[in-house]
């Protein structure tokens, strides 16, 4: 069995093993370590679970998501009801400055706009909306307003990497232009890679993170 077929079978087995996923509706294509997931699932939670399962598999370097979320007929809601529930859940979340976020809903697709100070606020708002039934997709147009100098951003990211027990910081390159961060270097596994990206997004003023990290073959 060649490498692509082996990775494909491992991913299929992992999806079957994950109880939160209806694996029969998901297809897997593997090529040079890049895995593409196709098919359909019944919720965003199941879609995210499928992506996490694929990333856990040895030999997977990247995951392309082409899975469609198909909501059951009885969960389809009117746009005005979705909008009302979206505003309510954003107001409930103390980590989100709801007064700075706009919500528009069209055919079950929610578009978020506005400006926040931190990336975690932007991500939290999108995560909140994904929890709502009836939502077919979320377009996150919320922007993060840079607040500090590029040198300060880079220093804070490097310090966070040095503190992390999960990261071999000397193998990671960090370049900052404005609020845009580019990460380079080789890491041992997906967990380390995710921790590095998380540390970059956690720095104040970061508006974009370009992940060019490479997971070393084992």
Give a description of the structure.
With 218 residues, the protein is α/β, with parallel strands linked by helices. It folds into 3 domains: 3-69, Histidine-containing Protein, Chain: A (2-Layer Sandwich); 74-144, 2-Layer Sandwich (Histidine-containing Protein, Chain: A), CATH 3.30.1340; 150-215, GMP Synthetase, Chain A, domain 3. 37% of the residues lie in helices and 29% in strands. It is flat, with a radius of gyration of 19 Å.
- Using the coordinates shown, work out and report the CATH topology of the largest domain: Histidine-containing Protein, Chain: A
Q: Count helical runs.
A: 6
Q: Percent of residues in helical segments?
A: 25-40%
- Characterize the biggest β-sheet: 4 strands, mixed
Query: Strand content of the residues, in percent?
Result: 25-35%
Radius of gyration: 19 Å
CATH class of the largest domain: Alpha Beta
Q: What key phrases describe this protein's structure?
A:
flat; 4-stranded mixed beta sheet; 218 residues; 6 helices; GMP Synthetase, Chain A, domain 3; alpha/beta; Histidine-containing Protein, Chain: A; 10 strands; 3 domains; single chain
């Amino acid at each position: 069995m060649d490498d692509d077929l082996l990775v494909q079978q491992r991913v299929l087995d992992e999806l079957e093993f994950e109880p939160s996923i209806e694996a029969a509706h998901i297809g897997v294509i593997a090529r040079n370590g890049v895995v593409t997931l196709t098919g359909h699932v019944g919720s965003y939670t199941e879609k995210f679970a499928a992506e996490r399962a694929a990333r856990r598999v040895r030999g997977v370097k990247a995951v392309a998501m082409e899975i469609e979320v198909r909501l059951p007929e009885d969960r389809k809601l009117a746009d005005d009801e979705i909008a009302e529930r979206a505003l309510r859940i954003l107001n409930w979340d103390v980590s989100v400055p709801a007064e700075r976020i706009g919500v528009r809903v069209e055919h079950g697709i929610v578009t978020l706009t506005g400006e926040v100070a931190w990336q975690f606020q932007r991500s939290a708002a999108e995560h909140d909306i994904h929890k709502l039934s009836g939502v077919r997709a979320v377009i996150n147009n919320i922007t993060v307003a840079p607040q500090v100098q590029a040198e300060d951003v880079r220093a804070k990211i490097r310090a966070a990497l040095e503190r992390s027990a999960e990261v071999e910081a000397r193998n990671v390159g960090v370049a900052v232009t404005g609020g845009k961060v580019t990460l380079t270097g080789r890491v041992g596994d997906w967990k380390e890679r995710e921790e590095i990206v998380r540390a970059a997004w956690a720095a104040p003023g970061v508006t974009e993170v370009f992940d060019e990290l490479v997971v070393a073959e084992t």
